[in-house]
Design a protein that fits this description.
The protein is globular. With about 350 residues, it is of the alpha/beta class. Helices cover about 25% and strands about 25% of the residues. Strands 3, 4, 5, 8, 9, 16 and 17 form a 7-stranded mixed beta sheet that branches. A 6-stranded parallel beta sheet has the order 12-11-10-13-14-15, with helices on one face. The chain has 2 domains: about 190 residues, Medium-chain alcohol dehydrogenases, catalytic domain (Quinone Oxidoreductase, Chain A, domain 1, Alpha-Beta Complex), CATH 3.90.180.10; about 130 residues, NAD(P)-binding Rossmann-like Domain (Rossmann fold, 3-Layer(aba) Sandwich), CATH 3.40.50. The chain has 11 helices and 17 strands. Bound molecules: NADP nicotinamide-adenine-dinucleotide phosphate and zinc ion.
């Protein structure tokens, strides 16, 4: 069967704005689900990839890995989904399924490298790469399709597929529990989900922000306290008091001030800065046996668990809905720290 041509938005070079493009989607294979995309979140990683901040971008880049939509076709080997189901696709669309990482439900660390939703070699269409959710439809192996609780607002659920699982996974892996003092650094797409989840897990949540004006929102989202990181006195007050810190800062930065906030044996997990960090003082971790760790999205099983938790606890993202044609302005607003707290594209605007 032939592939189909569909409408998308993408960038043809790191210095170019996003614009309309036609792309190909493969014909539905036996294990595939075809999804009519209704909404797609705008992650800061989309911008890093479009602008080639992490190097390794191949153009055209069609971003988008917070995909929500309805199933419109299934292959004859598919038994989990049927036409009409509300489903999601996150950051991965394939992995080897046989290595030890995949066997432990950690497809994001697949030893043969997971196929990411965009900017990865496309195993199904040789010589091409994967294209993401800034498009009208996608064809994905059913193992990488998530079931979306129908009680949640459809558009506001999209960011759970990346921002949600990326913050849920470390909170769950490091077993954040009731009564822990948890800091979330950066009130953006990831950070606002981190605050919601840490609150739902019963932690005492402190929003650590460079933007004092976000304090009111932080409290509405579930923070018990707000710590302005530029305020030296405030930083001193919280010195040595955190059990766990989730760091979503999207660029390289000074680590020492944040490490000083940790208790003995406490951990700070980096999820934001996929780039060189400023040198930090060994004493910042030696004094207090502290740990710096990292975390990448989450496995498929864990993503489904997070979505089910959100369904039960009625947790979604706080979003600003935009048309596809407004994407370049949205990118400018994200990079100038003006997003409350995730842009989501209404895909009707592209159809
Ligand atoms: P975002 O919406 O832009 O939020 C980032 C927040 O960090 C900003 O709102 C701001 O919050 C704070 N911030 C920005 N620049 C800062 C600086 N120079 N120093 C201190 N704080 C700063 O971005 P996002 O979508 O949440 O993504 C965050 C990062 O995570 C990106 O780099 C993205 O690529 C990465 N990411 C990683 C994974 C993973 O699996 N590890 C998954 C998804 C995304 P305040 O105003 O509150 O300070
Ligand atoms: Zn993302």
């Amino acid at each position: 069967m032939a592939s189909t041509t569909i409408k998308a938005y993408g960038a043809t070079a790191s210095t170019e704005a996003l614009k309309p493009l036609d792309i190909q989607r493969r014909a539905v294979g036996a294990d595939d689900v075809k999804i009519d995309i209704t909404y797609c979140g705008v992650c800061h990683s989309d911008i890093h990839t479009v602008r080639n901040d992490w190097k390794g971008s191949t153009y055209p880049v069609v971003p988008g890995h917070e995909i929500i939509g309805r199933v419109v076709e299934v292959g004859n080997g598919v038994n989990t989904y049927k036409v009409g189901d509300l489903v999601g696709v996150g950051c991965m669309v394939d992995s080897c399924q046989t290595c030890s990482s995949c066997e432990q439900d950690l497809e994001q660390f697949c030893e043969k490298r997971a196929t990411f939703t965009y900017n990865s070699p496309n195993k199904h269409m040789e010589g091409t790469q994967t294209y993401g959710g800034y498009s009208t439809a996608v064809v994905v192996d059913e193992k990488f399709v998530l079931s979306i609780p129908e009680n949640l607002d459809e558009a506001a659920t999209a960011p759970l597929l990346c921002a949600g699982v990326t913050t849920w996974s470390p909170l769950s892996h490091w077993k954040v529990k009731k009564g822990d003092k948890v800091g979330v650094i950066g009130l953006g797409g990831l950070g606002h989900m981190g605050v919601k989840f840490a609150n739902a897990l019963g932690a005492h949540v402190v929003m650590i922000t460079t933007s004092p004006e976000k304090g009111k929102d932080a409290k509405r989202l579930g923070a018990h306290e707000v710590l302005v990181s530029k305020d030296q006195d405030d930083m001193k007050k919280h010195q040595g008091s955190f059990d766990f810190i989730l760091n979503t800062i999207p660029v390289g930065h000074e680590m020492d001030p944040y490490l000083g906030l940790l208790k003995i044996d406490a951990t700070m997990v980096l999820v934001g800065a996929v780039e060189p960090l400023k040198p930090f003082h060994g004493g910042s971790v030696i004094m207090g046996r502290k740990r710096i760790a990292g975390s990448l999205i989450g496995g498929i099983k864990e993503t489904q668990e997070m979505l089910d938790f959100c369904g039960e606890h009625n947790i979604t993202s706080d979003i600003e809905l935009i048309d596809m044609q407004d994407i370049n302005t949205a990118y400018e607003r994200v990079t100038s720290n003006d997003v409350k707290y995730r842009f989501v594209i209404d895909m009707k605007s592209l159809k």
